[in-house]
Design goal:
Strand content: 15-25%
Number of helices: 19
Number of strands: 15
Distance between the termini: 24 Å
Strand order of the largest sheet: 2-1-4-5-6-7
Radius of gyration: 39 Å
Largest sheet: 6 strands, antiparallel
Structural class: alpha/beta
């Protein structure tokens, strides 16, 4: 559930905070007051595209913050799958929008806009003013039916996607295998040459790195020898003073006086260890120096071996490991080409088996869709009756074509409807008006809410194109939906506003020559006055207020059933 929304410096909003409640939260206000900005701010917090022009004039940044409470265990688990861990069943989502960048955080942890969008699908479902237009598309209708089918279909679709991918890979290989005899001979000759070239070189993993280190050492052997010789001279050369000579003299001097003061014993011991260490280093340098003799023959062999390995890497891979993997792949390719008929037969069998698995999963998914389509038809017919479609017929047509099998199956889904007695069912988009589509979408949302773990549903002007008795039926449906879900609804209709469990008013105000949008929660008398305004009365006459009060009482009685 969405507990609160905090917005600062966004569009006309200077700063506001809304505490939403359970049930039906209604937002009303004059046209242009900024109602859609409230819904837009929720979308922004949940990853929608942000623009610096949204920042309030004169401000450097905008801030939106949402606070959610998670009561459903399935919802919590889906959050964890997205690496989001609720803290005491709470999620705090914030987004700061500045010129050129925006920062999104969930419980203090930074997230990308893409991650927020994925999280939004778990937390909230937003129905915009024009979303009903997408309802007429067959692709959208398939998605709705699949969502209604739930986990059984989802599991099959996951397997089906894998079968389709494998089948397409085999088809692609089959299409590429159509070669004549001369082409195969050329490929055989090339594959054999490449395998032999690599095999003759006998490359070993890591060999190139070892040789490069040795080669680098030999190339710089003279410089290394000079450095080692100087180091030996400074540390222990018998000519002149060296570190070894000076350390030995210092040690002898300390030993000659340490008997007079016990405090010198530790120092003498340390210096003795240093002398031993210097002598050890001198001996190791001498041994190392003996290995630096430059052998032209060894250098030549190393250089040629490196050239050979680098030649192989330039042709077959960036590393020796990749070169060996290429040889293995070519050996397999050569085996196929040498036994081409057997290879083709095996490939054909694999392709047929993959197609069989794909079609089998398509059939299973189609059976689930057809079975669940009947259930959805029944539930939708009931929901549409409740929304004042008195003589409605709702059908789901499923056409299956195995030739069109894909990762989502081979079904094409189309919603058909008849809203008048005696009229045959026709495609949804060809007969339904905008107002009818809004009601149909609400009916779908109501039916789908029974299966959906999402607890918060937002409707931005679901009342488009409806009035009168139909508006009252829509309000009853929203109130019913609000018993199991949190509903946030922007409306212009008094019939819907009357059903509010919490009623908010959005209005524009002037402050220091600037316009700002404010949102306030209304108590019972204030809600009644706002309802009277929605009824169309500029002057709040006693009759208008009485009418509004009567409508609220009727709504209250309706919600008790």
């Amino acid at each position: 559930m969405l507990n609160s929304l905090h917005v600062k410096n966004l569009a006309l909003i200077e700063e506001t905070e809304v505490q939403f409640g359970k049930g039906l939260n209604i937002l009303t206000g004059e046209t242009g007051a900024g109602k859609s900005v409230i819904i837009g701010s929720i979308n922004l917090a949940l990853g929608a595209k942000a623009d610096k022009e949204m920042i309030r004039t004169g401000k450097e940044s905008a801030l939106i913050e949402l606070a959610f409470t998670l009561d459903d265990e399935a919802q919590k688990e889906r959050c964890r799958e997205l690496d989001v861990e609720p803290e005491e069943d709470m999620l705090i989502i914030s987004r700061k929008i500045s010129a050129g960048k925006s920062v999104c955080r969930v419980n203090g942890e930074t997230m990308t806009a893409r991650q927020l969008k994925e999280l939004a699908e778990v937390l909230i479902d937003v129905y915009g003013q024009h979303e009903h237009q997408s309802l007429t598309g067959k692709k959208k209708q398939l998605e709705i039916l699949d969502d209604f089918c739930g986990d059984p279909l989802r599991r099959i679709k996951e397997k089906m996607a894998g079968y389709y991918k494998r089948y397409r890979e085999l088809v692609k290989e089959w299409e590429a295998s159509d070669k004549d005899g001369s082409m195969r001979q050329k490929e055989c000759a090339l594959a054999r040459f490449e395998c032999e070239e690599i095999e003759d070189a006998h490359p070993e993993i890591g060999e190139d790195e070892t040789l490069e280190a040795e080669y680098r050492r030999m190339v710089h052997s003279r410089k290394i020898l000079e450095g080692v010789s100087l180091a030996r001279r400074f540390l222990g050369n018998t000519e002149g003073e060296s570190v070894s000579d000076l350390t030995g003299r210092a040690l002898r001097e300390l030993k000659s006086v340490e008997g007079y003061d016990e405090g010198l014993t530790d120092i003498t011991q340390q210096l003795s260890e240093i002398e031993g260490l210097v002598l050890d280093v001198c001996r190791e340098l001498a041994s190392y120096e003996e290995t630096l003799e430059f052998d032209p023959e060894t250098f030549d062999k190393t250089e040629k071996r490196l050239d050979l390995l680098n030649h192989l890497k330039s042709k077959y891979g960036a590393t020796v490991e990749e070169v060996l993997a290429y040889r293995e792949a070519q050996e397999e390719r050569l085996e196929k080409l040498m036994n081409y008929d057997a290879y083709l037969e095996t490939l054909k069998q694999e392709m047929e088996q993959a197609e069989e698995k794909l079609l089998s999963s398509c059939k299973k998914s189609s059976e689930i869709r057809r079975r669940q389509a009947k259930a959805l038809e029944k539930k939708m017919t009931e929901a549409l009756h409740d929304l004042n479609f008195m003589e409605v017929k709702f059908r789901i047509q499923i056409d299956s074509d195995p030739k069109k099998a894909g990762e989502k199956g081979y079904d094409e889904v189309e919603f058909l409807i008849s809203t008048n007695p005696g009229e045959p069912v026709k495609p949804l988009g060809s007969i339904a008006s905008g107002g009818e589509l809004s009601r149909i979408m609400l009916g779908l949302k109501t039916v789908m809410a029974e299966k959906d773990a999402i607890s918060t549903l937002i409707f931005d002007e679901i009342d488009a194109g409806i009035s009168g008795r139909t508006a009252w039926q829509v309000s009853k449906k929203l109130a019913l939906l609000g018993k199991e879900h949190q509903i946030i609804c922007i409306t212009h209709l008094p019939q819907i506003a009357a059903m509010a469990d919490q009623h908010f008013k959005i209005e524009k105000n002037q402050k220091e020559s600037q316009t700002r949008t404010d949102i306030t929660i209304l108590d019972e008398p204030e809600s009644t006055k706002e309802l009277a305004r929605l009824l169309g009365s500029d002057l709040l006459t006693d009759a208008a207020v009485s009418n509004a009060r009567e409508m609220k009482e009727l709504a209250r009685d309706t919600k008790q059933y």
